[in-house]
Model the fold of this input.
Amino acid sequence: MSTSDQDDGKRRIRLFKGLYLTPLQLVLAVAGILALFLVPEIEGVSTRLSLTTIHQGILWGMAAVGLNLLLRHTELVSFGHAAFFGAGAYGGAIVVNFLGVDAGLVVLFGGVTLALFFSLLIGWLVAEYRDIYFALLTLAFGQVLFAIALGWGTLGQDEGLFLRAGGSFTGDPPTLFALELGLRQYRILLYYLTIVLLVASLLVMWRLINSPFGNALDAIGQDRTRARFIGIPVKRYVWAAFVVSGVYGGIAGALYGMRRLQVTPEGTLEVFRSGEILFMAILGGFQTLLGPVIGGIVLRWLLENARFVTEHFELLTGLVLIFVVFFMPQGILGSLPKIAAGTRKRARNPGMVGGDLSTLGTMFADAARDAARTIKILLFGVK
Amino acid sequence: MAVAAADLLLQSVTDPSGWVIHTLNGLFRGFILFMIASGLTIIFGVLGILNLAHGEFYALGALLFVSLASYLTGLVVAPTDPASLLLFGVLVLVAILVAAAVLIPVSAVIETVLVRKIYDRDEVYQLLLTFGLLLVLIDLMKISWGPGTHRPDAVGGESLNQVVDVIPMEEWFGFSYSSYAIFSIFAGAVVFLALLWFFDRTKTGRIVRATAINREMATAIGVSSDRVFTLVFAMGGFFAGLAGAIHSGSAIAASADMGGDALVLSFVVIVVGGLGSIRGAFVGAILVGVLSRWMTWQQPALELAAPFALMVVVLLVRPEGLYGTWGEIE
Amino acid sequence: MTGDIQPTDTAAKGFDRRTMLKAAGGSALAVALAGCSDLLSGSEDDGGNGGEEIPDEPIKAGLQTFTEGAASVLGLQAQYGAEEAVSRINDADGVAGREIQLDVVHEADAHQENYNTFVEEGKDVTFGPISSGGHLSMLGEIEDSGVINVSTDGTVTTLFEEELTDPTYAFRFQNHDVMEAVSAAVTAVEQLGADNIDTYANINPNYAFGEDERRLFSAAIEALTDADEVYSGFPDLLADDMSTHVTSVVQEEPDVLFTSCWGGDATLLLDQGQGQGMPDATDIIVGPVLYGSANDYTEGDIQGNIWSGSRNFYWGFPDTDRWSPGQELFEAAQEAENTIPTAHYMSGYGAVTAWATAAEKASDIVGGWPSQEQIAATLENHGFFTPAGYHTMHESHQCYSNSHFGRMVWSDDIGGPLLEDVSVADPREVSPPPGTSSFDWLENW
Done:
């Protein structure tokens, strides 16, 4: 969805300096935001369409947008992003529990502050590493935070902390804009706040990656030595990108804590949460700005609903991920143009479907043959 | 910290058997970890893939062993004398080896059908594919063995390791310790030496190393890199399965979702040791095993954080790991 | 049966059919759930009023429990128990004529979300979870949504004592932690004598439940004896190695070892303990949830002086020739799932029973189908029977039942451990009076 403003002759509408959209993109964007705003109204249509799942999906997706800044531009795979999501969630909970403040925006601010602190610290320590070392180092820091939250009695261990008034588990939810709301109203208003923050953070991210800073990050991702050569202060820039990415995780995590009204180590800090954030970005399409949000909603929806539909929810989720790797490598959003073009072509020329089927058949036959050959070699050696 | 160290020193002088047993606890854990991590590290070293489904090979080995050992030991009566104990031991060994051997075709097929297709792809796809594989394997194991935990059937009222533990360690070493754990440590040492021998002394081992160092060159001189990759992946699966089989013969309960923790700890091991290095995995595993047991002994609260703290320290001080070679097997 | 809590509102004073029916709402259902099949005959006309407002469709119920993973050792037991209760209810013509349809979902780490989804699906009642932290995270939702949840476990000590003082819709069937931890201390003192206990050690899983158990047991044993703690280990939950803690205990040779490890952790601890001679190094091992792994032990695991609690239910107590319901439930569990029913089997069975008998009673009173508020109000101070004995859902919303403790011995007949020399503690002996917190109560012993 991120458009570069190259001059291809199409009419573009200027939203603000630097952001131009074609009429179609503008209509889609407005429709998308409207659809998000309508979710609370239509959630009753099906129990599988729940505000909770979509809201949480958006929040995880927001963290994935942050992670994607590193993944897409500096080409760094973070396997510990849950650290900042969790820091955001715990930061908010700490404000409620130990400062006794229950103004929603202060809670949010507290979460972002803690995430900022940890991303500054961890970012400084990992900024010079690359590849698998970066991935594993972020994983290790994430696990250290997880171990602290799980082991430290003050933070409630596995039970975590509550973000209800006084830290009790049945108190009132935090106030929003000084409004004391019932739970349902609180959650809907929080959801709208989330949408506003989501749109704002996407716009900010869009500006960022299309700025000289974003270009520098791309250069760092392609070749660090060359980037250093042309005068980019690599470590500082990677550090800055890391902090931005962590703050996105922190905002999302703080809102997540406010939504659930409870934060737990397993729910926000565990290594599998880090993996999920990463896979959300890839699933949705990590070469796009919006993809991680889509990926967040889809993966969250799968994880939440599959359990109620089938006891084999891991199998289902696993097959979806494998399918994405082989058939939709650009992710959901990235593959849309290709799927649309393919569908149009097939609508014009239905004979192609037969070709698709035979391609698919050949693929499975090849796989079966490979498997058979492997077993033959194992059993009888190479002839 | 200084007080704890002094305390430790004092205890080791006044009561050496405590010191020894805590170290043995660590060695047992370390050797199990080594067997898992060795597979992970050679797969990474040669194929360049971090296999997130590696822990599931370990779990599969464990569950297969539970079924096989239950069947095999069910064929004989409970051992009463040295001869029948020997027969029992042979059956357990057969169960361990067969369980691990099943992993060879399983992982080889996974490599040829799925993993081979993504060697040239961005590493995020490798992570996504192997994570998808992890979920699929977990569920297939749940379907096959059921969702809960599993132990080998009791023999004469005792669990498998209790039967083996009849062999008196006390007479030989002067203190009481699980004989099964001692044998496991021994098995781990054999695996380490066998791997060193394989990569140093055999032709196939050298071919694998050559492929790891330079794929194009190896192909140019007539090495089938496809076959090498399958071999390496199957080896990795075998050793993970072996670790699972040996471990589930000890007191642990095997379950379909036991692979996650094993995977994460193996990360720690190979990072501490240096990615792709067998010696590194060995030293890393022993360090993680022994240090984490010592730390748990002295500061029980640090049990969960200990391995990761070690990993952070090593990575910050010596980022390439203790034996880091960037993808070469040495 | 001495020392049972008497249901305060119904005053069941004897054990004849009339009072029993009266106490439990006077229905075939209550009798069926009490596990006394021979009392069933002729009680059909005691059923619900069949008021016009009672809906035709079945009752939709949801249970969240650990259906997989290492914690399924407990979770599946709860599921089997709940299913057995539901099948007995449906065989006895349902609750006020309505059958129960029970959906089961894996609780995972999404207790809040599971509960909310159940509510969205229109469930009339929900049960579960096993996880105490998970139960905590649902309470706010339950009170807001107003669909009754009867927790099977979720035994956070302070839950209904301090933090949630005036709940409406959230209930808990199982005994709370303090009862089992104090029972463990009492058992150790009874077996060894207070003067012979100088040292004790703790091995508890590294999460809030384990910490609570340690604090409660330590407070209780120090109140009863002059013993000092010589070791406290917190192995990870669902650990794959306990050897360090075993070694430390063997080195310290405490008189008493207390452990609240459960599931695979319990088998691991005892098995590794045998390997290093832990039972010989201690005079007694007491563990409130050791019997929960009854289906997984070998004979070798439980050698030594090992005593286990079984929370509020042990199927073999009292002797089956005096009290057949326990035996019948055991046989039902063996037949349906080939399993030895443990305390968690009763968690599921009792949670369903508590709600069903209260709903039936409320339905009788209102002459139609009762509202959530009416059922919730009926549940308060509601007395009912299960094969585990007599239970009272106290107005603080947690259930009080007897606490069982016995020595684990092997039985070839059932292929698992039995409890021998079972001692049964009245709730008054092992839990604080209403309105007092467990820790305050223990401090003033």
Summary: Strands of chain A lie at 13-16, 19-21, 161-162, 262-263. Confidence is low (pLDDT under 50) at residues 1-5 of chain A. Residues 351-380 of chain A form the longest helix (30 residues).
